[in-house]
Amino acid sequence: MKELTDAPFGINLPLLFLRDENMIRFVAESGVKFVTTSAGNPQKLIHILKEHDIIVYHAVPTVKAALKAVEAGVDGLVVEGGEGGGFKNPEEVSLLVLLQAIREKVDVPMIAAGGIVDGRGMAAAFAAGAEAVQMGTRFVSSKESPVHDNYKNAIIGAEDVGTVVLNKKSTPCIRALKTNKTLEIFEEGVMPKDMFAKIRDLYFGGDMEASAGLAGQSAALIHGQKSVAEIIEETVTGFHNICDRMGRFAKEKGF
Ligand SMILES: Cc1cc2nc3c(=O)[nH]c(=O)nc-3n(C[C@H](O)[C@H](O)[C@H](O)COP(=O)(O)O)c2cc1C
User: Fold this and answer.
1) Which pTM was predicted?
2) Is residue 189 one of the residues assigned to a domain?
């Protein structure tokens, strides 16, 4: 990344996949200033990052996890609603409820994630208490995303019911696009341990039956490939337009 850009960038550490502390130490000593941790408990490892003055946000799917993360000393939260793509808590809580419920209990900044693809989603998340938004499925299907067009087109073609949550009784529990394979696994209830062994064949080879194509319900709101710049510009412009409209309602006490 440092070779590719002079701009600041953050790093995500999915704790479930870290075999030892060395990866965290490597990140801590890399000069990075912002880290999100996910898929695990940050309590044991956060001190390594904080000793290097790194800002740490932890991804949480429930109020309980949010309270634990704040107790552990995180600077902020990535609040991930059950509608989002990727690894999920089997007890799904929707983003709108989760943001409000966590905001009632803690005052650290919240990045909202799950179901957001544009300014409308961003405005809704801000109204519910968030200070920022994170999008996964939207950027996976962006023009610059390196994944195969079959994966992007499956996201673009998906309906509101186009994703499925797999492996609720085991770990990891995931939300992925509906395919013959994922629907079969959904019926069986348990995901094979080697589910991700051939993920590269799906991501880069375009074989949608090779593994599970992670995606959120937000796929239903994505209708074409856009560049990253377009996505960000349209999201911010859309957000400001909605804030203007809401601002007028408030000013005129119009409803
Ligand atoms: C293909 C894919 C891979 C993801 N990988 C990670 C990951 O490695 N670490 C993480 O914290 N979140 C990961 N996520 C979750 C996203 O960061 C984000 O929270 C989520 O996609 C939000 O919901 P959305 O897909 O509706 O935008 C992933 C999501 C997708 C769709």
Assistant:
1) 0.96
2) yes
